[in-house]
Amino acid sequence: MKKVLITGANGLLGQYLVKLLLEKNYVVIATGKGDQRLSQNESPLFTYYDIDVIEGFSLHEVLKHETPDVVVHAAAMTQIDDCELQPEQCERVNVQGTAQVLLDAEAFCKHFIYISTDFVFDGVKGNYNETDDCNPVSFYGFTKLQSESMVEMSEMPWTIVRTCLVYGNVVGGTRSNIVSWVKNSLTEGNKIKVVSDQVRTPTFVEDLACGIELIINKTAEGFYHLAGKDILTPYEMAIATAEHFGLNKDLIEKVDASVFTQPAKRPPKTGLDITKARTELGYEPMGFSEALNKLKI
Ligand SMILES: NC(=O)C1=CN([C@@H]2O[C@H](COP(=O)(O)OP(=O)(O)OC[C@H]3O[C@@H](n4cnc5c(N)ncnc54)[C@H](OP(=O)(O)O)[C@@H]3O)[C@@H](O)[C@H]2O)C=CC1
Ligand SMILES: Cc1cn([C@H]2C[C@H](O)[C@@H](COP(=O)(O)OP(=O)(O)O[C@H]3O[C@@H](C)C(=O)[C@@H](O)[C@H]3O)O2)c(=O)[nH]c1=O
Q1: What residue's CA is closest to ligand 2, atom 23?
Q2: CATH number of the domain that 17 lies in?
Q3: φ and ψ of 282, to 5 deg
Q4: What is the ipTM of this complex?
Q5: Residue 67: which region, alpha, beta or left (left: phi > 0; alpha: psi -120 to 50)?
Q6: pTM of the full structure
Q7: Is residue 235 part of a domain?
Q8: Which residues pair with 199 in a beta bridge?
Q9: Which of 114, 131, 233, 263 sits a CA distance of 20 to 30 A from 106?
Q10: Could you tell which of 13, 137, 165, 225 is best to mutate to test the pocket of ligand 2, judged by most ligand atoms within 8 Å of the CB?
Q11: What does residue 253 show for φ and ψ, rounded to 5 degrees?
């Protein structure tokens, strides 16, 4: 089986990708910043290294020692508002970090997979496919696009995966997501304001991990959009989450951008067209309601 090194393995995607790859008998080299927070650490196929991607030397040494077949670069600064407010740190992690990981991957591995975002688009057209023009409206989106450009210029086999509003069970200290945030807020009886003028194709983290495994397995190169199949507003997601968990929908206030502001601008209407992934990879994600059934009650 292929040996896969993952950066950002302590994150939401990282944890589920590690789990899936181990279930499929890949050899997994998980890397993350600080101590590992994964629950699969007993497997003989699993190794963990504490690696900060902006400290190039340790990653270089690990890649040289492990020579994995594939590197999945998922580590990033992902809090969009923090990226806007701390642009230098965001640039260090999201751009310089990617440059470092890519450079080392070019020397020691055969296939580089970069995890990118719908936020490379401006959110005017919506339902974006892999060849649509990019025009980010946030600093985070700008750094992810800069990294995409570096990866595209690489002479090694590469894949750029764009995904959108990832959700799933919060495990091992991963960041909150739309479903966990709505569920926890309503469970605690807190009122929330949720926008109805943004459009997304929310992505169940287990579907995303499956799509990436297909790419690894088939050595599929180029751009792929891996997202959910339903086009929803955050307000619709919140209502569906409340109904699914039997929580009080009256705590959810429908708002728009004139009421709900965040430090970083969000693209209003994204959503990713997954036709290419369906056709070429056999990627078939769950619907939002179906995925809610797989979440912890
Ligand atoms: N979540 C989403 O909705 C979407 C995510 N993406 C992309 O998917 C990828 C995975 O994101 P996701 O798992 O959801 O987000 P998380 O924030 O859960 O995971 C990102 C991980 O990167 C780690 N990290 C941050 N800085 C460094 C660093 N300097 N060195 C090493 N690791 C670092 C974080 O560590 P720590 O946990 O210790 O902070 C975290 O574990 C990212 O590239 C993101 O841009 C794309 C579209 C949507
Ligand atoms: C906190 C909050 C969010 N929302 C909405 C806005 C947004 O569409 C959705 C999720 O909000 P967040 O601020 O958590 O997520 P946000 O930072 O917008 O999510 C992004 O994360 C990065 C990593 C990506 O790459 C993108 O694909 C995207 O999913 O919920 C509200 O309506 N009210 C609120 O109080």
Answers
A1: 78
A2: 3.40.50.720
A3: 75, 25
A4: 0.98
A5: left
A6: 0.97
A7: no
A8: 269
A9: 131
A10: 165
A11: -100, 130
